[in-house]
Write a structure and sequence with these properties.
- A five-stranded mixed beta sheet has the order 1-2-5-4-3.
- Helix 1 packs across helix 3.
- The chain is built from eight helices and five strands; from the N terminus they run H-H-E-H-H-E-H-E-E-E-H-H-H.
- It has one domain: Beta Polymerase, domain 2, CATH 3.30.460.
- Strand 4 and strand 5 form a beta hairpin.
- With about 250 residues, it is of the alpha+beta class.
- The structure holds ligand 0O2.
Length: about 250
């Protein structure tokens, strides 16, 4: 995850990437790159809209927002080239599309852990989305304690004369998971040394505390839901019922 962004590296890989010594050809390649990045931006916007729609539907029906925030980002060119180089892939437009899954990234911050699973299921039931990869770091946290659900999906974008499928990386996590990951990233980012063992142990302890917090908050959510259903005569498993209804989204 380290970034090799020094100037000589950048100019060397830019030269290799543009692949030509004539200005015209280089300009052409840059235009192609801009076009590709705009396709990724469209795919990213489409995924963000899908989550906004799910949030809207849920909040209208149940008076509660499963999503507290959505962030999206496009990888920068230096970061793209750095990743291709580190992984030993060619520096070319084709290689970006073939080898990178996270040029377009969407991060969905959820209220409760239950919402993470409910939202990912609801998204995957949409018939224009194809799941390419799923990494469940909530069920199987990383050794450092990192938790999140990662999905790589292929999503169609509709251009003037064609339909194109683009890959988007989606990270779903709770507020507590995001709090931990954001601070851990800040502590680790651009450090050219490994964190001391004691710091890593403390970070792991904090990750366990955040996992416990998620479980306890989810327990509270269930209790409130049960109380609500007793008082209003509604079935207790609102969230599950809602997921079932989302089959109609097809
Ligand atoms: P950035 O700047 O957030 O994009 P892949 O990307 O799939 O080829 P990898 O590393 O196997 O390679 O993917 P994985 O495990 O799905 O992780 C990808 C992203 O998850 C990272 O992107 C981070 O955003 C996040 N992530 C993974 N592990 C950690 C962690 O231990 N701590 C934190 N804070 N975030 C993590 P990038 O490219 O590293 O960075």
């Amino acid at each position: 995850m380290s970034q090799n962004t020094d100037r000589s590296f950048l100019s060397r890989s830019l030269q290799e990437f543009l692949g030509s010594d004539t200005v015209e050809l280089s300009m052409e390649r840059m235009q192609e790159l801009n076009k590709l990045m705009s396709y990724y931006r469209c795919a990213m916007m489409s995924v963000v809209t899908k989550f906004n729609v799910l949030n809207e539907q849920f909040s209208l029906q149940y008076d509660r927002n499963p999503i507290t925030g959505i962030k999206s980002r496009l990888k920068t060119l230096p970061s793209i080239m750095d990743k291709l180089e580190r992984r030993g892939f060619p520096l070319s437009l084709e290689s970006i599309e073939d080898n990178l899954n996270d040029v377009a990234g969407v991060r969905v911050i959820c209220s409760f852990e239950e919402d993470v699973h409910m939202l990912s299921e609801a998204l995957m039931q949409q018939d224009d989305i194809q799941l390419l990869e799923r990494k469940d770091y909530i069920r199987n946290p990383k050794p450092n304690g990192y938790r999140s659900l990662h999905l790589i999906v292929s999503v169609p974008i509709f251009l003037a004369h064609e339909k194109k499928f683009m890959r988007v990386e989606i990270q779903l996590r709770t507020l507590a998971m995001d709090f931990w990951a954001t601070l851990e990233h800040q502590l680790r980012y651009k450090k050219d040394f490994d964190l001391a063992d004691s710091v890593q142990r403390e970070l792991y302890t904090c990750a366990s505390l955040s996992a416990e917090l998620d479980q306890r908050m989810d327990g509270l959510r269930q209790l409130v839901q049960e109380q609500n259903s007793r008082e209003n005569g509604k079935p207790a498993s609102e969230a599950i019922r809602w997921t079932d209804q989302s089959h109609n989204l097809r």
